[in-house]
């Protein structure tokens, strides 16, 4: 292994797709992008609804992680909060 034994046989550049050029030299992918229709309202709503479970999961994890750190792991409140330390000191005064 020290001399490159078992190393990859292909370079990373050979894995990238080669984009074909049209007759005038402009990449075809750019022309296809220009022809795309904007997303409909229905599609936008579906994307929004599909993202909601991830937001809910993140909020629930943050909430229960805070409880775990404070009650079970007995970590100090200042270390578990995402607030800057200056605000914590001002609130206690």
Structure description:
The chain has 93 residues and is mainly alpha-helical. Helices cover 56% and strands 0% of the residues. It is elongated, with a radius of gyration of 26 Å. It starts with 27 loop residues before the first helix and ends with a helix.
Describe the structure in brief.
The chain is mainly alpha-helical. Helices cover 56% and strands 0% of the residues.
Distance between the termini: 62 Å
Mean pLDDT, all residues: 75
Following the backbone from N to C, one meets helices and strands in this order, namely HHHH
Radius of gyration: 26 Å
Q: So how many helices?
A: 4
Topology overview:
Elements lengths: L27 H8 L5 H32 L4 H4 L4 H8 L1
Label this structure with key terms:
single chain; 0% strand; 93 residues; elongated; mainly alpha
């Amino acid at each position: 292994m020290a001399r490159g034994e078992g190393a990859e046989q292909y370079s990373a550049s050979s894995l990238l797709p080669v984009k074909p050029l049209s007759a005038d030299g402009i990449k075809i992918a750019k022309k296809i992008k220009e022809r795309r229709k904007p997303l409909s309202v229905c599609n936008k709503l579906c994307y929004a609804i599909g993202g909601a479970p991830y937001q809910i999961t993140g909020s629930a994890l943050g909430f229960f992680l805070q409880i775990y750190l404070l009650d079970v792991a007995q970590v100090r409140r200042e270390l578990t909060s995402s607030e800057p330390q200056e605000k914590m000191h001002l609130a206690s005064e």
